[in-house]
Amino acid sequence: MSSQPLLPHQRTDLDRPITTKRKLILTTILIPILLIGGIIWVSIKGDGLPKDDLGLARYYLKGSPVIDGHIDLPEFARAFYGNNISAFDLNKPTKGHVDIPRIREGSLGAFFWSIFVECRDDNGQDFLNPTFQVRDTLEQIDVSFNLIEKYSDTFAFAATSDQVEVAIKEGKVASMFGLEGGHMLGNSLAVLRTYHKLGVRYMTLTHSCNNAFADSAGIFEGVEERWGGLSKFGRSLIPEMNRLGVIVDLSHVSDKTALQALALTRSPIMLSHSAARHFNNMSRNVPDEILAKIGRGKHQVDGVVMVNFFPVFASSKPEEVDVAYIADEIEYIVEKTGKHHVGIGSDYDGIESTPKGLEDVSKYPYLFAELIKRGWTEHELSLLAGGNFLRVFRGVEETSRKLQKDGWKPSQVIYEKRRDLDPIGWEL
Ligand SMILES: [Zn+2]
């Protein structure tokens, strides 16, 4: 083995001995100048950190940018432009809540692109009426990939926690896919596996309608339950999600569905965009009973509750919702679960109104400034910004690896009400 250092020392002028004359210049002129300069610097700048809360929030977010659990940019592309990505420019202000300059201003370092198509409540009692939902879901995955590719200076597709971290370190916005509703699976675990191959890393078990797997919370009021929580088929879905490494997302589901999924999952869970029911008694919001189940104690499941910004969910008086109100909600969830279980899931581009002071993705620092005012430390803010989500994601990846190592194979369970896969039994 060579004893050479990795970077051989280059002999330069710096290696020459300092002459006595130079020493004299150093001690009599340079050192006093440096000392005085240093004193002036320290008295102006203190410890070098910005003195105002907003400046400090921006400074902290540079190191630990926001990882948002739910942004409807793909839905924005579909609803306003029929998914034609040449019809709008993300480098310029959009009429939504998201564009690249505002992403940069708000220190958004990663987000889940919400893959969403409407669910139907006229899908038949057994959810067997044919729909175009799988086609439309594939179109939403396609438009997301197209945008990531078109703006590849900004976005980097990420399918693992490591890829998220690498993208952030490279100054890119890590782009993950989350599926908003089991109705998009067409009653098929094979479709789930295929979406996973396309990068989907979480799925809310329902959207606002019941589906073959589970009952929904509805939106503004509950819907009549079909299964009493998870269906028999839904009980096969959870282990398959655990095996694949698709995070079980309990936003949008009924309380019974959430409690049963918590009892069944082997992996950590998330609520990608939920408000607290304590503040607004709406079925779509997460109740204390479920918050109590999230944690790392006995009989709890590790998870992250990412707080939704939609004022209509947050409060029965939406016009009163502002930065301080959202901070109150975050602190309430912390009171119930601890600072290791909270995150941000704004729902930007998917909501018709926003809190005062949190109008778009450029405004996250104002929320962090509010929490600094309330005494949150840099470390606690980094957990809220994205640290908690990354821990959950790693936990899900770890369980997936373990289950596959233990020999778990792709589930062969088929929705019992389907008849199209019944063997035909022709003569060979
Ligand atoms: Zn939603």
TrEMBL record:
One of its GO terms (molecular function) is metallodipeptidase activity. Keywords: Dipeptidase, Hydrolase, Membrane, Metal-binding, Metalloprotease, Protease, Transmembrane, Transmembrane helix, Zinc. It is an enzyme of class 3 (hydrolase). InterPro entries: Metal_Hydrolase, Pept_M19. The chain crosses the membrane at residues 24-44. It catalyses: an L-aminoacyl-L-amino acid + H2O = 2 an L-alpha-amino acid. GO terms for biological process: proteolysis. The keyword Secreted does not apply. Its cofactor is Zn(2+). Its EC number is 3.4.13.19. Pfam families: Peptidase_M19. Belongs to the metallo-dependent hydrolases superfamily. Peptidase M19 family. PANTHER family: DIPEPTIDASE, MICROSOMAL DIPEPTIDASE. This is Dipeptidase.
